[in-house]
Amino acid sequence: MLSVFLLVGTITLFSRVQSGLPFTPLVQGDINGDGRVNDRAFVPALSGTTESALAAQLRALLTVAPANVRECLDRQLGAVAKRNSCRDSWTQSLNVQWQPRIPLKVQGRNIVANVALQNPLAGIDQLLHGENNLRGWGTRAFPDPVLLVPRGFDASAQRFKYDVNPRFGDTRAFRTLSREPFRVTLDFSVNFSTLYDVQQLRRAIEPIRVKDGWQRRSVDSLTAFYMRNTSSFYRLILSESDSLFLTNAQIGALVHGDSLFQSRVRDVYYPLAEFLFAQPGGVAGKTALDSANATDKLYWVAFWDQADIVNDIVGQQQRDLMPMLKNIVNVSKENRKTARWFFDSPLPAIYKRPRIGGN
Questions:
Q1: Are residues 302 and 162 in the same domain?
Q2: Interatomic CA distance for residues 167 and 64, integer angstroms
Q3: Of 16, 58, 270, nearest to 147 (Cα)?
Q4: Alpha-carbon torsion 171, 173, 175, 178, what sign?
Q5: In 91-181, alpha helices (H)
Q6: 25 found inside a domain
Q7: How far apart, in whole angstroms, are the C-alpha atoms of residue 106 and residue 197?
Q8: 322 with 279, same domain?
């Protein structure tokens, strides 16, 4: 899978290349009467045989057969075919998905469009070769395993008479009903549910149930409400200090960094809490929503600043021991503008020393 981000949207390619599957040359039907249609065929010799007509048919097959079929039969002339001695040709598949950027909105909600091109290789195949001479591009091949077709029984010689199946090993699409045609699907979706930031704002400023009834959150309670959704690199790493083999110097630096980060984040959310507390009636209006969104942006700036600090404290081998940490630290500056990471290491509204290892 390959995704490319362009001005026209996101284009994702899904591709697979697969080697051919093995198959066995068979006789049509159940010749030996064991109740199973899996009797291996005898590959006729091209010379020195009394079955001249059969040899001629096989020679005609080898003239037009694909290289993999010719190679399989050539090495087994005059012998019973071995199981899985033939192998089908390679197959490939390709699907394309395009998510264009649509500037239009419906009631303030983004329109998400998705254009899916399923098996465009089949479309190119038909365009170049016509519907009567398809090569089967983008379609999984199912070769015809029947080499010999019984056409009668010689009672005097006590043996069957056969014809060579001219379609043995053939995978051309115009000779099979198993196809995966080229299709284009266009989807549009609009999410009409209440936006998450609006839901969070309502939970923050609307009255909550208490012992004596309902009341609005205090400034400190609002600050704690928003800070519970934060995540601290420092606390995450300190909780795994034993596994990461942190030194005392590293632990001290991380504890100090966590203290500064908690103070910075509290200074971000405390003014928002004061503003929301002062809103009359506890209504989640546009002004309150804009203030909450602007404050969240300030938090994410502080969040990603941690990455650079932690990168200087923790060594490469220690990052390798914690894949999530390694992935977070390696997020590019550009992707940090939209990337959001959450993990179970929130900051308290009132600072408490983080847990170190199992302590």
A1: no
A2: 10
A3: 58
A4: positive
A5: 120-129
A6: yes
A7: 18
A8: yes
Phi and psi angles of residue 154, each rounded to the nearest 5 degrees, phi first: -90, 100
Please count the structural domains in the chain: 2
Please check whether residues 36 and 182 belong to one and the same domain. Answer: yes
Residues 103, 217, single domain; the answer is: no
**Of residues 119, 100, 114, 141, the one with CA closest to residue 15:** 119
170, 86 Cβ separation under 8 angstroms: no
Q: In whole angstroms, what is the distance from residue 117 CA to residue 15 CA?
A: 12
Whether residues 273 and 144 share a domain: the answer is no
Domain residues for the domain of 296 are 196-337
Are 232 and 317 in a shared domain?
Answer: yes
Residue 175 in any domain: the answer is yes
Query: Is 324 buried (19+), middle (13-18) or exposed (0-12) by CB count in 10 A?
Result: exposed
Domain assignment present for residue 264? The answer is yes
pLDDT in tens, the chain (359 residues): 655 555 678 889 898 888 888 999 999 988 888 888 889 999 988 887 667 888 899 999 999 888 888 999 999 998 999 999 999 888 888 999 998 888 777 777 788 899 999 999 888 888 888 877 777 788 777 788 999 999 888 788 788 889 999 889 877 655 565 677 889 999 998 888 888 888 889 888 888 888 888 888 899 999 999 999 999 989 989 988 888 899 999 999 999 999 999 999 999 999 999 999 988 776 778 888 899 999 999 999 999 998 889 888 988 888 888 888 888 888 888 888 888 888 888 899 898 888 887 66
Note the pTM of the prediction, 2 decimals.
0.54
**Dihedral of the alpha carbons of 50, 53, 56, 61, in degrees to the nearest 10:** -120
Q: How far apart are CA 289 and CA 114, in angstroms?
A: 30
Give 107's contacts (C-beta < 8 A, 6+ positions apart).
192
Residues 144 and 247 both lie in one domain: no
Task: Answer yes or no: do 171 and 29 share one domain.
Answer: yes
**295 inside domain:** yes
How do strand 91-100 and strand 183-190 relate by DSSP bridges?
A: unpaired
